[in-house]
TrEMBL record:
It catalyses: [E2 ubiquitin-conjugating enzyme]-S-ubiquitinyl-L-cysteine + [acceptor protein]-L-lysine = [E2 ubiquitin-conjugating enzyme]-L-cysteine + [acceptor protein]-N(6)-ubiquitinyl-L-lysine. The keyword Glycoprotein does not apply. It comes from Mesorhabditis spiculigera. Keywords: Coiled coil, Metal-binding, Repeat, Transferase, Ubl conjugation pathway, Zinc, Zinc-finger. This is RBR-type E3 ubiquitin transferase. The keyword S-adenosyl-L-methionine does not apply.
Amino acid sequence: MADDEQCYNSDDDDYMDDCDYYNDEDTYMNEIPDEDKWDPEAEEAKAECLDHFQVECLLNENLASVVGGYVTPSLAKILLHAHNWDVTKVRQLLATDMEGTLVSCGVKPATSHREEKGQLCLVCYNTDDDLRSLCCRHGFCSHCWGTYFETRLLEGNATRILCMSTKCAVVAPPEFVLKLLDKASLRAKYERFLYRDYVIAHPELRFCVGKDCSAIIRSKETQPKRVTCGKCEVSFCVLCGIDYHAPTSCDVIKKWMLKCADDSETANYISAHTKDCPQCHACIEKNGGCNHMQCVKCKHHFCWMCFGDWKSHGTEYYVCSRYKENPSVAAEANHVKARRALEKYLHYFERYENHNKSLKMEEELRQKIKRKIDTKVNEHEGTWIDWQHLHTAASLLTRCRYTLQYTYPFAYYLEKSARKDLFEFQQGVLEREVEDLAWAVERADTADRGALEASMHRAENKRVALLRDFFFSPMTDGAAPGPSRHTSF
C-alpha cells in the first residue's frame, strides 16, 4: 500500500507519550454503580521495571539453581537459554537424562563426533603450538577462531556459535569466545548480544520499546495486557511489545500491521481491477465502458466478460450472458473474489485509520483543555477540582476511541458467525457512544456537566462490555457468548 496508509506505530508520533488518559479514572469511576464498576487494573499487567544490575541478579539466581557437578555456570547459561530459562524443566531433564540433555543442547559432543586434537589447524592447516578446541577436541588456531567469532557477531549471533568443524553441534561457551576476541569493542559487542538474547529468551522479561530506554520489564502475565515503563512512561503490550491492542490478539495485530505495510494489497488491486489476455496472458486494465477488448501486445480481440473470441462473439451474446461451468467463468469468479477481498480490507482499514487520525486530533484537544483549565484556575475562576471533569471526559474519550480503533483488525479476521454478529453490534453501539461523547467534549465549555458525565458513563460502559465479552473472556469454541449482566444496550 502507499506510504500514507501505513499502520500507526508509537514511534511515529508523540501523542501516546502522555498516557494519563488511561489512568485518570478516579473521579469518573466513583460515579458508577458498584455492580457495573470495571477494575481499572484489569487491562494493566502486573509488572516491575528492572535495570541491568537487577536483570543480572535474576539470571544469576536461575543459574545457581542449575549449576552442579559437570554443569558449570558457563554451561548452565547454554542449557537455560536452550530451554527459555525454564529452571524446572532443565532440572527435570538433567535428572532423567543428563547425557542426552547435555548433547542436545550442545554442551557435550556426541560420542561419534569426538576427536583427538591434531597438530594442524583444520581451517588454515598451519602448525600452531597453541591450538584451541572445545570439548569436542576439534582444534583450530587462535586467529581462525577469532575471525570466525567476529563473522558470527556481524551476523548478530552470540548464543548459538557452534564449533567450526562440519556437522559438530557443540556450542562455544562465553568464556571461550571472550578469550579469543582480541578487540575490546568486539568483546563488548558480544556481551551486549548475549544479554539481549538472554532477555529475549526469558519468559518473564521484555525490553522496553521506548526510544533509547534501557529498562527491562519483568512480568508473569500470560494475557496481552498493557504495561507502562517506569523509566520512560511508554506503554505497550506486555506480550508482543506492540502498542496495546485490545480487543485484538497479538497474532492478529501482527498480521494486520504486516498487511497494512505490505505491498500485497497492490497485487490484490491488480487482481481485482485487471484481467489477463486469454491468448498471450498480458495484464490488461479496462479503461472504458465497452466490453470489446483488444490486447495491445498481441492484438487479440476478446470479450471482457466471458473471454470469448470477439469474432464469433457478435452472434453469440446469449452464450456470454448464460451461466456455465468453464475456465473463463472460473477466471471471472477469481476476479470478483479478489475485488471483494480488496473492498473488505479497505472497509476495515479506512475506519481503523480514521480513528487513528481522530485520536491525534483529540489528543490536541485534550492538551488544549488542560491549558484552558490552568488558565481558569490562575484567573481564580474556580479550582482544578471544579474543572477536572472536562479533562477526565477528554481522557475517557481518547481511551474509548483507542479501543474502538483496534476493534477493526479484530473484526476483519473474525469469521462470519453469530459471535461476529454480536461483536459488530457491540462495536456499532460503542462507535455511536464514542461519537456522542466526542461531540459533547468538543462543546464541554457550554455543555451541561450532568449530560457530559452521562455520556461518559455510557461510552465507558460499552467499552468495558466489549472487552469483557471478546478480550478477557475469549470464546474457544467459536460460539457467541451468553448474555452478560454488564452488557446493557
